[in-house]
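Researcher: For the record, we're logging two predictions in this thread. I'll number them. Prediction 1 follows.
Model: Prediction 1, sequence and structure:
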Amino acid sequence: QAQLVESGGGLVQPGGSLRLSCAASGSIFIGTDMGWFRQAPGQQRDLIALITSSGSDTSYEDSVRGRFTISRDNTNNMLYLQMNNVKPEDTAAYYCNALYGSPFGSWGQGTQVTVSP
C-alpha cells in the first residue's frame, strides 16, 4: 500500500525558515493533487496549501500565503513545503496527503513544527 512519510520539522525561532518534505511511495503520486495540512493541539486538521498533480497550480490558505511555498518533484515522488518568516501560530503537526479520496490509505505520522524564541 502506498505510504506517506513527512520530515523536516523542528524548533525554529520566529522569522526563521524550515523546509518540510513528504516522501510518497507507490505509483499514484504522479497523478494525484496533493496538499499540506496542519493540526495544532486541540484543533482540527486544516488544509493550508495545495498543488495540482502536474505542479502547475498552487493555492494557499490566507494565513500562510506569501510565506509558504508548496512544490513537488514527480520524478522522485516528493512533496515539499518551504516555510519562511514563520510565526508562533504556525506551531503544529504538519501532514501531507492527497486532496481527494484516500489513495494513500491512512495519514502519515506527521512532522512537528514548533516556533518559539
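Researcher: Logged. Prediction 2.
Model: Prediction 2, sequence and structure:
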Amino acid sequence: QVQLVESGGGLVQAGGSLRLSCAASGRTFSIDRMGWFRQSPGKERELVASIEENGGNIYYTDSVKGRFTISRDNAKNTVYLQMNSLKPEDTAIYYCAARNKLLRRYDYWGQGTQVTVSS
C-alpha cells in the first residue's frame, strides 16, 4: 500500500499564492506518475496537473496553465503544486493521487486539503 498525506491548503485572497505538498510513504516503488486533482461542490473531480516519475511529461489542465507548477522530489517522495495568481474559481478540495505502476491507474489518494480563494 501507499499512503499520501497532503498539506499546504488554506484561505488566500485572489491573486495570492499557495504551495501544496504531498508526501508518499509505504510501497512507493509501486507508483510512478503523480497528480493533483480538485473537486468543488456540484462539480466532478478534475485532474489539475500530473507529472511522470522522472519529472517529465507534465500535464496541466487549461485553466491553470501559466499559473500552477507541479514538481516532485523523489528523494523525499514528495510532489508539490505551486499555485500563483489564484482565482475564486480555484476554490476546491485538492487531492493528491499516485498511479499504480503496474495497473496504470490512480489507485492511491490522499485525504484532500481545502483551498479557498476569496474575491
